[in-house]
Amino acid sequence: MAVSSMSKTALRRAMAGNTVSQKVAFNATRTYASKTASLKETFAAGLPEKIEQIKTLKKEHGNKVIGEVTLDQVYGGARGIKSLVWEGSVLDSEEGIRFRGKTIPECQEVLPKAPGGNEPLPEGLFWLLLTGEVPSEQQVRDLSAEWAARSELPSFVTELIDRCPSDLHPMAQFSLAVTALEHESNFSKAYAKGMKKTEYWEHTFEDSMDLIGKLPNIAARIYRNVYKDGKVAPTQKDQDYSYNLANQLGFAENKDFVELMRLYLTIHTDHEGGNVSAHTTHLVGSALSSAYLSLAAGLNGLAGPLHGLANQEVLKWLTEMKSTVGSDLSDENITKYLWDTLKSGRVVPGYGHAVLRKTDPRYVSQREFALKHLPDDPMFKLVSQVYKIAPGVLTEHGKTKNPFPNVDAHSGVLLQYYGLTEQNFYTVLFGVSRALGVLPQLIIDRAVGAPIERPKSFSTEAWAKLVGAKL
C-alpha cells in the first residue's frame, strides 16, 4: 500500500533510530487518499515498542516457571496448558472474552459503526486486534475502501470455484479457493527472491489485506453457485465490508440482516489462540507459510464438527425439538426434552465451553439483537426457553462443567430467520469472520520474529517412565 510523501516523512520521524521500522518498504502498488494514519502506518509506529517489550520480558523473566503440566492435560488434548502467545484476545473463565482488554459490550460501544447503524464494524475490530488502538471513523472508512479495492478475484480462482461440483461441501470449496490464492502471495514471491527477516511482516500484512478483501467474493460465489443462480453482485467500493458480503450473498435489501452481519463478523473473529482454527493458522504460519496457506489450514480445522460446525448441530437439534414439542414451550415440556436428550447419551448442543464457566458474552450479544429485531420469532422463543431451563437441568445432571450457552447456541437461529437457511454454509461465514481474528496475530508473529513452533512429544511408555509408572 503506497502512502503520501507527507505521511512517509511523518512516519520516518516517528520511527527515527529504529532499525526495524526504518526498513519498512512503501513500494506497494495501491494508493488510498487519506490524511489519517493508515492501518499499516499505525501498526509500524507501534512495532518498536512491542519488540522492546518482548525483549525485556524474556531477558528479565525468561527463566520463571509459569505453570505445571499434568498427565491428564497431556492426554486430554493439551487442555489448559499455558504455552501460546496471543495478543488479540484473552478468554477468562468467568468474565468471558476481551479483545485487547475490551469486553464485547465495550467494543459495541466504542468501535465505529456504519452511518445509521447500531452494530460495530468488523473493520474496527481488525484494527483494534492488530494495533491495540480504537480507530477513528475515518480510519475505518478508509479500511473499508481498501478491502473493497483489493476484492477482485483472479480469473483462475473464479473458474476453480465455478468448476467445483455443487455437492462438494462449501467449506472444502472455501479452503480450496484460499489455497489457490497462494499463487498471488507477496510473501512467497519475496521470500523466493530473498528478503530480510525485518521485512517478513510487511509482506504478510499485504497478503492478509488482499486475502481479507477477497473473502466475501469467495464466500458469495460459493453460496450463489451451490444454492442460487450463480450470479454474484460486484463489490460496491463505497460500502463497508459486511454490507458487501450481505449484498453479494443476496440479502442486502434487509437492513437488519446487514446489521446482523456486522455483529456476526465482529463477535466470531477471535477467541484466544488455543482453539483449533486459531492455533492451526498460527502453527502453520510459524513455518513461514504464507497467510493464504496458513488460513486455509485453519479453515480446515474450523470445518470440523467439534469446532465450526457446532452451530449447525445446534440448529438441527432445535428443529428436532420444535417438531416434537410443537407450540407447547412450557417449562415441563422443555425440561422433559432436555432430559430425554441427556438420557439418550447425547449432549445438549451449544451448551458448555472448554474455558468459559458463564454464559458466553457472544451469546448475550446475539440474544440482545434478537430481542430487538425478532422477539416474536417461534425459534427465538424456543431458544429463550432452553436458555431458561437448560442450565438447571445440566447442573442437576452433573456432567457438564459449564451449564451455560456458548455462541453456537444462538447464531443459526438468527441466520435462518432472515432466510439464510442453508446450514452447510454457516461455517463459511464463520470462516470469513475468523480470518479477521487470526491474521492480525500472524502479522504480529512475523513482526516480532516469533519462531517455528515445536513442542516436545513423548510416547506413552516414555510418559509412564517420566511419572514413575509401570506399564
UniProtKB/TrEMBL annotation:
Q: Which CDD domains match?
A: ScCit1-2_like
Q: Which domain of life is it from?
A: Eukaryota
Catalytic activity reads:
oxaloacetate + acetyl-CoA + H2O = citrate + CoA + H(+); propanoyl-CoA + oxaloacetate + H2O = (2S,3S)-2-methylcitrate + CoA + H(+)
Report a single Gene Ontology molecular function.
2-methylcitrate synthase activity
Q: Tell me, which GO biological process terms does this entry list?
A: carbohydrate metabolic process; citrate metabolic process; tricarboxylic acid cycle
Q: Which GO terms describe its cellular component?
A: mitochondrial matrix
Family annotation (InterPro entries): Citrate_synth-like_lrg_a-sub (IPR016142), Citrate_synth-like_sm_a-sub (IPR016143), Citrate_synthase (IPR002020), Citrate_synthase_AS (IPR019810), Citrate_synthase_euk (IPR010109), Citrate_synthase_sf (IPR036969)
Q: Which residues form the active site?
A: 307, 353, 408
- Which UniProt keywords are present, listed alphabetically? Transferase, Transit peptide
Q: Name one Pfam family in it.
A: Citrate_synt
By sequence similarity, the record places it as follows: Belongs to the citrate synthase family.
UniProt cross-references to PANTHER family, sorted A to Z: CITRATE SYNTHASE (PTHR11739), CITRATE SYNTHASE, MITOCHONDRIAL (PTHR11739:SF8)
Q: What is the name of this protein?
A: Citrate synthase
